[in-house]
Amino acid sequence: MINPGRQAQLLFSLICVLAITTVVAAKGAADSRTAASAPASNSLRELIPPKYQKRYEEWKTEFLATDIGKAQWEMYASHPRLVLTITIGGKNAEGAGTGGYKWNDKGELVAATIMLGERLDSGYPSAVYYPVMNALEPFESRQLIGGSVLAATKIAHEFGHVMKISSTSQELYNLQVKLVPTYNKIFLSNGYNVNDPRLGEIATKIGGNPVEIWEDREYWGEANAMLYLKDRVEKEKFHCRLFGKIKRAVEEYAKDYEQRFAEIAKEQGAMYTCGWK
Ligand SMILES: [Zn+2]
Question: Which band of pLDDT confidence, cut at 50, 70 and 90, is reported for residue 10?
């Protein structure tokens, strides 16, 4: 568990991040309408403005160079229900975001949009929530990996969000969207008291406090990013140095979620686990 002081601090920064994300998502919806590109398949639509086409192809090629990337791509390209749109734009130039979720009457996810930042191949998010993407930094500065690998890892992170949301009910997601702002409003007006019973009541309804919901989502993204990277760097000499760095960040910031990452490290077929038990 996070201690209350850190939780209050995280909540505060999270509220700011969420506000930015909402703006980016709204902007993303507008951009995708104006982007010009032919759909690649009926279920996986790539709406890439021509000026970004070249870099997008490089990132996509890097993602598809792994078995796991290819398998996930093909799954969405031939998906019977879900229309996944990938586009480039938004204010988060070095980041990415996933949203635009829609469900059908049966409660199945039928639409999602991944918005990639135009400089996806640069910028490393913090190790606190992004232990996998962050771990790549020293390897790029030593020119062991290129920017396209970073971009492809960020794409894998977003695919992780789509996969996770596919198994989240629409009801719970909508409730989270509705009640997280209420939670934050109470938190900001009660002297940052996380023990307020009103907050406890909301957290029970939505499956945790906003920080817990946020970190659970982000760590699912990171778990998929790790799955991709494992495939991508398996034959590289620095494989275990990279995975050791991820391990240390997970132990320091994501202890409650360690199992999720350990399972990937130990996944069947792995020749070695680089210290993960
Ligand atoms: Zn994410």
Answer: low
DSSP 207-221: TS-HHHHHHHHHHHH
CA of 212 to the centre of ligand 1 (A): 14
- Residue range 130-137: mean pLDDT, rounded: 96
Task: Identify the CA nearest to 93 among candidates 157, 154, 11, 32.
Answer: 154
Q: How far is the CA of 150 from the centre of ligand 1 (A)?
A: 14
CA of 11 to the centre of ligand 1 (A): 16
Give percent of the chain above pLDDT 70: 84
Global pTM reads: 0.85
Q: Give the Å distance between the CA of 14 and the centre of ligand 1.
A: 13
* 170's tokens: 């629409």
For residue 19, the surrounding DSSP H or E stretch is helix 4-34
Average pLDDT of the chain to the nearest whole number: 87
DSSP conformation class of 255: G
Q: pLDDT value at position 207?
A: 95
CA of 221 to the centre of ligand 1 (A): 5
Distance from residue 125's CA to the centre of ligand 1 (Å): 10
Residue 211 Cα to ligand 1 middle (Å): 13
Q: What residue spans define the domains of the chain? A: 5-274
- What are the angstrom distances between the C-alpha of 86 and each of 74, 134, 164, 214? 14, 23, 17, 22
Distance between Cα 97 and ligand 1 center (Å): 6
State both tokens at 243.
Answer: 């995975």
Ligand 1 centroid, distance to 79 Cα (angstroms): 22
Q: What is the pLDDT of residue 274?
A: 80
Residues 191-203: pLDDT tens digits?
A: 999 999 999 999 9
